[in-house]
Amino acid sequence: MDVFEKLTIVSVRYLDISIDYLGAVPYDRKMHEAVRAQQVIQDLYPDHRVSKAFCSLADSLIETPTNDQPKGTLQFFFKRFLGVESEANG
Fold first, then answer.
1. Residue 26, Cβ neighbours under 10 Å: how many?
2. CA gap 49, 30 in Å, rounded
3. Is the pLDDT of residue 89 over 50?
């Protein structure tokens, strides 16, 4: 939560956007083992707490409603830059 709070402060101050907390994945040596083995951690350690944290985070992402309205000036910029706004209106 400490990292999220600091990132929130920076994103609001310098990017003028807000971010949402959807979850976290705890540090664990099993992640290093999975990377070294070039395997998905869920495949190697399906019942481990890190695997469960990834599943929980994925569920949060799936269940989070999408917001078509940008939250800040950076998102407005990208919508205009990519032409998303003009396609929706025209």
1. 9
2. 10
3. no
Q: What is the DSSP string of 45-78?
A: -TTSHHHHHHHHHHHHHHHSPP-SS-SSHHHHHH
Give pLDDT tens digits for 52-66: 999 999 998 888 777
pLDDT digits (tens, 9 = 90+) for 24-40: 888 999 999 999 999 99
Terminal Cα-to-Cα distance of the chain (whole angstroms): 42
Q: How far is CA 47 from CA 30, 36, 51, 52, 54, in A?
A: 12, 19, 7, 7, 11
Q: Coil, helix or strand for 90?
A: coil
